[in-house]
Structure formats: C-alpha cells, structure tokens
Amino acid sequence: MRTSLNIPDDMLAEFDQTWQSEGLESRSRALREAIQEYIESHHQLEQIRGTVAATVVFDYVHDEIIESLHELQHEFQTEIDTTSHVHHGEWCLETVFCHGEASRIRELVYRLKDFDAVGRVSVLSLRTAGETTAESDQ
Question: What does DSSP assign to residue 108?
C-alpha cells in the first residue's frame, strides 16, 4: 500500500543516513521495520498488569505545553513519585518516576504522546510484586 507522510526534512535526512549505514535496501524497508518496532513497543506496554514502577522520559517545547503538562501531572499525582526536569533552550527533557496501576501509567503515557509539543515518549517498566503480563494471565 502506498501512503504519504509529513516528516521534517532534518528527521528524514537522519533516517535516510541511518538505514543506509545499516545496509538496508530501501527507505520503505527501514520504515516497515520502524513501524514494527513501534507496534511491538505498544503491545509490550499494553500487556503489563498490576502494580508497576516505571520511568517515563519525554521531551517537549516548554512554552507550548507547560500549563497543560502541569495539569496532567496534577491529574496523575497519585502515580507520580517525583520528576526531574532539564532545560535545553526552548526544549525541555522530563523524567517522571511513577508507581501505580499499570492501566494508569499507560493512560499517562498515551496522554503525553497526544501532545503535539511532545517530541518523544519512552517508558521503562520495572515489575513489582504481584505484577503480571496478559499472556501469563491466560
């Protein structure tokens, strides 16, 4: 299936350099692999159940999102243990240390990903007592 995407020029140039340095045959092949990794990451996050400790790392444009981000963090104050914040010009890097029900941590991650001013969201989940995956529940 053919599709078109809007990708910033600098990101596309770096993507092309990356897949070419890996010796892949085409941009399409590299894009299929990137999509597959995205899907696998989503499924992994969806399978976590129970109480978890997680670190959520994301970057964002400060002036475009700070008020909405503070509102979101207050909404999830029960799950957020602490945050760490670093300024890099107009961009900021935030690390949020969370503990709580996996479903609430997932909701936080998805809400962060929905902001246009957020560049990337990464999650490191650490299992705690009583936590299982959907596969082991079956």
Answer: H
Whether residue 83 contacts residue 73, with contact meaning beta carbons closer than 8 Å, is answered with yes
Give how far Cα 121 sits from Cα of 1, 18, 138, Å.
28, 20, 29
Handedness of CA 46, 47, 48, 50 (dihedral sign): positive
**DSSP SS3 for 1:** coil
Question: What are the pLDDT digits (tens) for 36-95?
Answer: 988 988 888 888 888 999 999 999 998 889 899 999 999 999 999 999 999 988 899 999
DSSP type of residue 31: H
- Separation between Cα atoms, residue 50 and residue 125, nearest integer Å: 12
**Residues contacting 58, CB < 8 A, separation 6+:** 93, 94, 96, 112, 118, 119, 120, 121, 122
